[in-house]
Amino acid sequence: MAVPAVVRYGYGFVQGAEYAAQELGLASVDLKYHYTGDFEATPKNQTTAATWFNDGTEVIFAAGGKVGNSVMTAAETAGAKVIGVDVDQSVESDSVIFSAMKALALSVQAGLDGHFNGSFKGGVSEVLDITTNGVSLSMDTAKLENFSQADYEALVEKLKTDTNLVVLDDTGADSAADLPVSIVTVTIVE
Q1: Average pLDDT over residues 11-18
Q2: Helix, strand, or coil here: 87?
């Protein structure tokens, strides 16, 4: 569903695909974008993923809880790939090539530290992004052919320091199709 966290994941994925396409010198990338309407592992969600894979989709970024399990099952059958979400999902399926992870322990530790040192700010939302090490990729278990740990570390450093690289969040565009990309063509699938 188009809740803020899922939208942020999706928008980041689209913008990351654009950056990767530029780096690789690609002329175009076709990207389908879809909200299932739920966070469940269902036959419908598995069928949707299977249809995409059968139509030539190479990888699906499944940012939606148990929806990922439906996508992983479809990917295993099709010999396709999945990008996991939230935590390292590589243990759930051999189809997971890496996961986009939230540093949940970091946020819990910050809350506990705040509680014990008297600086806890209840009712306040804080964004933990790449600049605070609040997000990462599961490079320890990644199954990537042309992207190394050193490549990842260089990209993280660039995201932290290059003020020209701005990743729009869930309020940065009305839809994924409105993101400022030129190589990636986003097709919204209802």
Answers
A1: 97
A2: coil
